[in-house]
């Protein structure tokens, strides 16, 4: 039922009630009906639960009521302050075990935990480090000592450097801090959106020398898939930027090489984990670049899509929306596929902003005018009723990444996240993690926790979780045949999860 026709039927009902027994106190049946109707409208509101599922739903409800009594309430606090509390939460532990379907919004250079990067990648031979004057670091693998670079004095080989240190663990911890935003004191470290974004972009530069070294790159992707798989995720769509992989002798591979590696490593991972569906790539370019550069990237993406249709899902613009070019600014570049009559699906970041009414804020409208397949973040979507309605009727899902929005300071208490409106309104939504390395998360369980306990409140139930997981397959870029296969596999895992957890 559309919201309009349901509105009319409610009015007719109210009139009938009033003719029968017009009392001054509101009719409790009418109240019940209204509450039930509202609940049925939310995400997962029409999912019919089996008796076993109802049992688990009741259990989850009780756990959530207890969770809400915790002071401070974790979703009301900055994630960095409460991660250790969330880790102990019984709701969180259940969410970890839950088959969550797919991760549809993650960036390739922030896929793997900082621990692995430091303890594995930087321990390989030929790894050099350079300490920048402003306090960050750069890495490079090289057969000989690299030439000095701008902003830092000299390169040191890490194995030699570590050999001379008395406290290697403390040093390694400091390197981890260089590769993540995670800190005990986020208020001081990132007082404003500008400060948070500045560090954010800087970390990507620090990461690049590590993860684009060809041998690390391969193991890194494998490790990324493993971290997702261990969190009960079966499929990934990864935003991949323009950086190219390099070898020890300085040889640089082309971008097609990286795509092939994504495909090959995914295949290798699937051989070892047959219940993993796979991964696809969304070709991305930074929105701080010029129209002509973006145009060239669109052309490249069209070409890559022709050559690697199985691995390349589409195209996106990345980087901070508030300071980069808007979708409308790039309209000439983005019209290229339709002009050339080529199919290049778009997966735009849009509305990751609180600048209501500005050109930036119009990205959600423009993303839809460019027929985007999904909307990254869509934090501003609730300010655009027409765009919101259009997205719903076209089945354009919002990729909700709550921890990212909180760390990048769009919202502090996650109970106030605008996606709460989308959830109660049954809007198509998927949950994702954006940049696990930088936010100190692995998998999707932390973001699911914030959505389920914080944004969704006490009304979000097992039906909501089930629909969110199914949405991630439904709104993926997989072919309908692969979607069916993924959905069947997911259902099997779900049944097992319900059977194992609905007893107690
Ligand atoms: C890093 O991980 C890879 C792949 O799991 C493993 O083969 C390698 O031995 C590890 N290297 C170090 C230095 O831990
Ligand atoms: C990065 O690592 C260096 C070297 O250990 C350290 O001096 C610096 O404080 C670290 N930076 C951050 C942001 O933690
Ligand atoms: C990917 O695998 C294919 C088939 O095994 C191989 O020919 C190709 O060289 C691999 N590509 C890369 C970049 O490793
Ligand atoms: C979006 O899709 C509509 C309907 O299929 C089509 O008419 C329009 O040209 C498309 N717009 C762009 C920019 O691709
Ligand atoms: Zn993103």
Automatic annotation (TrEMBL):
InterPro entries: A_deaminase_dom, A_deaminase_N, ADGF, Ado/ade_deaminase, Metal_Hydrolase
Major subcellular site: secreted
Annotated EC: 3.5.4.4
Pfam families, per the entry: A_deaminase (PF00962), A_deaminase_N (PF08451)
Signal peptide interval: 1-24
KW Cytoplasm (keyword) present: no
Any one GO MF annotation of this record: metal ion binding
Enzyme class: hydrolase
Reactions catalysed: adenosine + H2O + H(+) = inosine + NH4(+)
Any Gene Ontology biological process: inosine biosynthetic process
GO cellular component: extracellular space
Cofactor: Zn(2+)
Span of domain Adenosine/AMP deaminase N-terminal: 30-95
Entry similarity comment: Belongs to the metallo-dependent hydrolases superfamily. Adenosine and AMP deaminases family. ADGF subfamily.
NCBIfam families assigned to the protein according to its UniProt record, in alphabetical order: adm_rel (TIGR01431)
Name of the protein in its database record: adenosine deaminase
């Amino acid at each position: 039922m559309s919201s309009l026709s349901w509105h009319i039927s409610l009015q007719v009902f109210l009139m009938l009630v009033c003719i029968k027994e017009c009392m001054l106190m509101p009719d409790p049946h009418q109240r019940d009906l209204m509450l039930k109707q509202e609940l049925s409208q939310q995400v997962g509101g029409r999912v019919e639960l089996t008796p076993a599922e109802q049992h688990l739903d009741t259990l989850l409800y009780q756990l959530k009521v207890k969770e809400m009594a915790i002071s401070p309430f974790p979703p009301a606090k900055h994630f960095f302050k409460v991660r250790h509390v969330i880790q102990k939460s019984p709701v969180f532990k259940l969410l970890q075990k839950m088959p969550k379907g797919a991760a549809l919004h993650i960036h390739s250079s922030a896929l793997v935990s900082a621990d692995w990067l430091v303890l594995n990648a930087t321990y390989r031979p030929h790894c050099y480090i350079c300490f920048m004057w402003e306090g960050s670091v750069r890495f490079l693998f090289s057969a000989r000592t690299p030439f000095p670079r701008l902003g830092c004095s000299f390169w040191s080989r890490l194995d030699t450097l570590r050999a001379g240190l008395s406290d290697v663990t403390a040093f390694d911890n400091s390197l981890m801090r260089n590769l993540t935003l995670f800190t005990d004191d986020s208020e001081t470290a990132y007082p404003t959106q500008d400060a948070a974004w500045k560090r954010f972009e800087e970390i990507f530069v620090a990461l690049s020398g590590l993860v684009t070294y060809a041998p690390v790159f391969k193991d890194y992707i494998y490790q990324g898939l493993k971290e997702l798989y261990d969190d009960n995720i079966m499929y990934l769509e990864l935003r991949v930027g323009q950086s190219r992989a390099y070898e020890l002798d300085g040889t640089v591979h082309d971008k097609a090489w990286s795509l092939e590696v994504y495909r090959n490593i995914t295949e290798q991972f699937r051989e070892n984990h047959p219940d993993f569906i796979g991964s696809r790539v969304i070709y991305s370019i930074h929105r701080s670049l010029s129209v002509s550069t973006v145009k060239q990237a669109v052309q490249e993406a069209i070409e890559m899509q022709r050559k690697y249709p199985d691995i390349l899902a589409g195209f996106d613009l990345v980087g901070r929306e508030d300071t980069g070019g808007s979708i409308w600014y790039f309209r000439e570049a983005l019209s290229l596929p339709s002009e050339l009559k080529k199919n290049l699906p778009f997966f735009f970041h849009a509305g990751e902003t609180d600048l209501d009414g500005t050109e930036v804020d119009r990205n959600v409208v423009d993303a839809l005018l460019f027929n985007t397949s999904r909307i990254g973040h869509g934090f501003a979507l609730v300010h655009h009723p027409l765009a919101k309605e259009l997205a719903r009727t076209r089945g354009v899902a919002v990729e909700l990444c709550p921890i990212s929005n909180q760390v990048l300071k769009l919202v502090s208490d996650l109970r106030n996240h605008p996606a709460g409106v989308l959830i109660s309104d049954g809007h198509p939504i998927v949950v994702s993690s954006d940049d696990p390395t930088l936010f100190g998360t692995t998998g999707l369980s932390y973001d699911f926790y914030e959505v389920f306990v914080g944004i969704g409140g006490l009304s979000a139930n097992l039906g909501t979780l089930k629909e969110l997981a199914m949405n991630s397959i439904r709104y993926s870029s997989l072919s309908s045949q692969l979607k069916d296969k993924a959905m069947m596999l997911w259902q099997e895992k779900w049944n097992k999860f319900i059977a194992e957890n609905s007893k107690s």
